[in-house]
Write a structure and sequence with these properties.
By secondary structure, the protein is α/β, with parallel strands linked by helices. The protein has one domain (8-288): Ribonuclease Z/Hydroxyacylglutathione hydrolase-like (Metallo-beta-lactamase, Chain A), CATH 3.60.15.10. Helices cover 24% and strands 25% of the residues. β5 (115-119), α6 (131-134) and β6 (140-144) form a beta-alpha-beta unit. The N and C termini lie close together (11 Å).
Length: 295
């Protein structure tokens, strides 16, 4: 049972379809990215494309917005040429008409207009798919400044960024730089962003998959803490073992994984919730029934 002072009413997960990727993508692998990308003949079983929903008394918060169904219905969604070939080798999507972000929110009793803030872990297309649906709302779209600055660098499509699906009219972007956090329980993290100033939702820098990747910590009285990590891992058990995926800067990813595993010293029942972990929904359900060691 939650505390009557708990400002969070509910935490939920929405899956905006499924994706199959290469086993080397999940990792661990010693192979070069382009070697496995163009030689791998296997796909994983379908994995969820998750977005997380936090019902805070000060506003509805999303962590990521999933995949846009237009990516499987609109033939020109992805670039052509060599970039298009790379995208087709990376992932296969299955997104039905009921797999949109708005449909998922509706099943929870919410509208797109209810979203106060959408925190984007990083700007790859399977995390920004709900942005077109948010363009008509008053929502704040939060991204790290490092991630936003990467969008302006040359050849964004070759780096997994599709500007025409990101920098949309009507979106209210908030580009954040981590600020010092005076909270010893967050060590070794010393900087981040306290979303509502009450310590319940903390955005943390976890670079590696992309230069500006973010994670989001959700803390509630008497419940196990939750850490939403985007694509820092595709399997929470691999992260716990210190293993990193096959996509990203492995040095940075290892450093971020090590910081998260060090965080367990103060939060030993920390639940890791990734965007494409097949067991993420079960992990969330288990965490929501687990009493925090800090209660």
């Amino acid at each position: 049972m939650t505390s009557p002072t708990d400002p969070i009413a509910r935490v939920s997960v929405i899956s905006t379809g499924t994706v199959s990727i290469r086993p080397e993508h999940v990792g661990p692998t010693r192979k070069n990215l382009y070697l496995w990308l163009f030689t791998s003949t296997r796909w994983t079983a379908p994995r969820p494309i998750n977005a997380y929903v936090i019902e805070h008394r000060d506003g509805l918060v999303l962590f990521d917005t999933g995949q846009d169904r237009a990516s499987v219905t609109y033939p020109d969604y992805f670039p052509g040429g060599l970039n298009g070939l790379i995208y087709s080798r990376l992932a296969k999507f299955d997104i039905g008409p009921d797999d949109t972000l708005s449909a998922g929110l509706a099943r929870l009793g919410h509208r797109m207009a209810d979203v106060h803030t959408a925190v984007i872990s990083h700007l790859h297309q399977d995390h920004i798919g709900g942005l077109p649906q948010l363009a008509e709302s008053e929502s704040t779209i939060m991204i790290s400044r490092d991630e936003w600055d990467a969008l302006a660098k040359p050849l964004p499509e070759a780096r997994g960024l599709l500007p025409t699906h990101i920098d949309l009219p009507g979106l209210k972007w908030s580009r954040i730089t981590p600020e010092p956090l005076d909270d010893p329980t967050l060590g070794p993290f010393t900087a981040g962003h306290d979303l509502f100033g009450d310590g319940t939702i903390i955005v943390l820098p976890t670079p590696g998959h992309t230069p500006g990747s973010l994670s989001m910590l959700v803390r509630r009285p008497r419940l196990a803490p939750l850490l939403m990590v985007g694509d820092l891992t595709y399997d929470a058990d691999l992260l716990t073992a210190g293993k990193v995926p096959g996509v990203g800067d492995k040095r940075q990813m290892r450093a971020s994984v090590n910081r998260i595993n060090a965080l367990r010293r103060t939060m030993p029942n920390l639940a890791i919730l990734a965007a494409h972990d097949a067991n993420a929904a079960d992990r969330l359900s288990a965490a929501l029934s687990e009493t925090s060691h800090q209660a």
